[in-house]
Amino acid sequence: MSCKIKNPSNIDLSSLEPHVQGMYDYFNQKIGFQKPPVMVFDSDPSNQSKVLGKTAYYDPQSLEVHVFVDGRHPKDMLRSIAHELIHHQQNLEGRLDVGGYMGEGYYLKNEEMKKLEQEAMLRGNALMREYEDNLKLEEKNKMSLKEWKNNELNKQLLKKFGILKEEKEITHMCALEVTHKASGMTGHPIRHTLSESGDISHYTVEFENMIIENIAVENLDIVQQEEHSHKRDDEKDHDKEKPIMSEDELEEAAKPDFPDVDGDGDKEEPISKAQQDKKEKEGDDKEDKDLSKVPPQLRKHVAKKLEESIKRVAQAKNITYKGKKIN
After folding, report:
1. How does pLDDT run across 230-288, given as a tens digit for each residue?
2. Which of 134, 220, 287, 305 has the fewest CB atoms within 10 Å distance of its CB?
3. 205 and 271 in one domain?
4. Based on the structure, what is the number of domains in the chain?
5. What value, to the nearest 5°, has the Cα angle with vertex 213 and ends 207 and 217?
6. pTM of structure
7. What is the spatial distance between Cα 67 and Cα 7, in angstroms, rounded to a whole number?
8. Which helix or strand (DSSP H or E) is residue 40 part of?
């Protein structure tokens, strides 16, 4: 429930109005107004120069809080509003009309009004301070969350570009030597993915003539492994002059254009897949066959295609291959 604001002063108070509504909403949560007041921003230039001039007043008949705004600090205006909001509640509760003297200096001469004024001063200022501190804490928490998100994003970017290194070491089983199932090539991993629990899903492997990035574990045979600890972004020494390929490029290079092993007419599928299809068709249940590997008689063909693909990558990236430039 918001309150209505009138601004006959024609002074720009757009930055103050959200706080007027916010503070009223906070007071309403604490007090529970039966009706909202109307906030009126008044201008009286002659009053502005008076040191003990008027700052605000409450009209119990119209339920209006009048605030004089000439030359005042916004926070000072909020204090005046806080005071008058307590008078508004006193009025709604039927406690404001106490009778007696209401002229100049009534605070000293009317004990009942003195009590009501003291209540407005104490409770109004206290609730305004609560509103102010809650708002500041909320803003601080928002900034803290934003800073945390920015810090996390910066950390990830710094790690990605090798500027920030991981600090935590994770114990895990790590492959020292592997054989690529599709090509039969043997090499050693130089880096790998690593979860908090020590699981590895992909290896980057240095082979004799190239480096293949992000090879899925299921596409490798582990020849040798050991348990050790290191940070997630650690990388082993390797030949940085070797051409670097992705696993997709490797698979494309490893595709033979003959023969059609499974007889399905597809001469571009990898040998390993064609053999698996053939096995499923024939129902071959011999356990001593490892059909996931390229047959020895086709290794030369695959190696030749790989060699050609590596040369293309080296030429495209303008790097040396086997110690010389590829033209």
Report:
1. 877 788 898 888 888 887 776 666 555 545 555 666 655 555 566 666 666 665 444 44
2. 287
3. no
4. 3
5. 85
6. 0.45
7. 10
8. strand 38-42
